[in-house]
């Protein structure tokens, strides 16, 4: 590391004096609790589909994920999820609900540009890459499994 000049040292000490100390432990606890609550709600949604719609544990996954994405998008539209994100940080970025929040946030941000070019075009900036990666990964894994089952390695 290069030696710092006197002005760089004084600048660094000024930055350190005004730097806000972050409560890391409190932030981790908030993220853990909020993320856990989101997961509990997701589990409750899954149990709801199993109980009232006769889904199996495996088949209840897709409607549960869609419901959680809808909840996140709905709450984002009313500004609730953004406040939750300010409070919980990464705890609100549980993959499914964080994805729904990111998609809708981009759409809301660009709504002044119109529905097609603004909302539609910008909504899929994030979602498009996630969907493409998911489809490609599923294709690769299905191809590998098919080849392995063809050669009798896997049933």
Automatic annotation (TrEMBL):
Residue ranges crossing the lipid bilayer per the database entry: 31-52, 64-81, 88-108, 128-153
Pfam family, one: SpoVAC_SpoVAEB
Superkingdom per UniProt: Bacteria
Coiled coil segments of this chain: none
Keyword annotations from UniProtKB, A to Z: Membrane, Transmembrane, Transmembrane helix
InterPro entries in alphabetical order: Spore_V_AC, SpoVA
Name of protein: Stage V sporulation protein AC
The species this protein was found in: Jeotgalibacillus campisalis
Lineage: Bacteria, Bacillati, Bacillota, Bacilli, Bacillales
């Amino acid at each position: 590391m290069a030696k710092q000049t006197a002005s760089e040292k004084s600048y660094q000490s000024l930055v350190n004096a005004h730097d806000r100390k972050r409560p890391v432990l409190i932030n981790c606890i908030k993220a853990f609790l909020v993320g856990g609550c989101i997961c509990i709600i997701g589990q409750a949604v899954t149990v709801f589909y199993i109980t009232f719609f006769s889904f199996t544990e495996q088949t209840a996954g897709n409607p549960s994920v869609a419901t959680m994405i809808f909840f996140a998008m709905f709450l984002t539209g009313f500004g609730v999820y953004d406040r939750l994100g300010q409070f919980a940080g990464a705890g609100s970025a549980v993959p499914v609900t964080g994805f729904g929040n990111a998609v809708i946030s981009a759409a809301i941000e660009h709504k002044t540009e119109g529905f097609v070019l603004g909302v539609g075009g910008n909504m899929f900036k994030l979602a498009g890459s996630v969907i493409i990666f998911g489809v490609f990964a599923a294709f690769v894994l299905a191809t590998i499994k098919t080849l392995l089952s063809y050669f009798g390695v896997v049933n």
